[in-house]
Amino acid sequence: MGAGTDLGRVRGLGAAKDGVHHWWLQRVTAIANILLMLWFIFSLVRLPGLDYSSVTLWLRQPVAAVPMLLLIVSVFWHLRLGVQVLLEDYVHGAPRVLAMLALNFYALAGAAAAVFAVLKIALGAV
Amino acid sequence: MAGRPISPRPLSPHLTIWKWQVHAIVSILHRITGNAMALGAVVLFLWWLIAAATGPAAYLTFMAVATGWFGILVGIGFTWTFFQHLCSGVRHLIMDTGQGFDLGTSKAMATGTLVISVALTVLTWATIYIYKGF
Lengths: 126, 134
Prior knowledge:
The complex is a heterodimer of chains A (126) and B (134).
Chain A: H1 6-10, H2 18-46, H3 52-59, H4 62-90, H5 94-122
Chain B: H1 22-54, H2 56-66, H3 69-96, H4 103-131
Helix pairs in contact in B: 1-2, 1-3, 1-4, 3-4
């Protein structure tokens, strides 16, 4: 790492814009979460009941399954970005790397399981 | 920073010295509620969804726990957690546009998130109580 010029000092520390990208995606998923969560809450309230057949019949409709898939992607993406900030603030060194790894696995595995569950119901495999 | 002389100068006041104000409380609540949902409510959501995809028996097990007194307590807790994070998140989106930084507005918005989140939690559970009946 050089010490002479400003460019030399920052070279190799990673691209700029990455923080802005994180910040921006946090906002994009936040706004998506507002819309999709309000849809989710109103949909549940409007169901005749929260029993097995009411919920599965509801999720079998494309107008419910598609927003539900979007909700899963948006929520898991948002939490992945949010918990990252928590880890960056409070966990340091090697434990942070492990925690970030665990966070990524958790977010991806959780989202995959949720997407699979919705598809299984929506495609009539239940 | 090896070799840097230890200075007796006072350090910047930090959490133990600052008086807690509503903005600070709402700010830390945003972090606590967000991460609590990320690691708690989301797991319950997964349980609900996977139970529905598994079959009636698995779904019945989930509902038995969810409609028990402890399940309802957790449900009410996460309902408030969600609404607090939602209101606080909207507050942040407003502040992202450069609005609401003067002392009065800032304090009113922070207090507003607490009032609205409690009100929406009561409204939600009143709706559940009246229309779903348990």
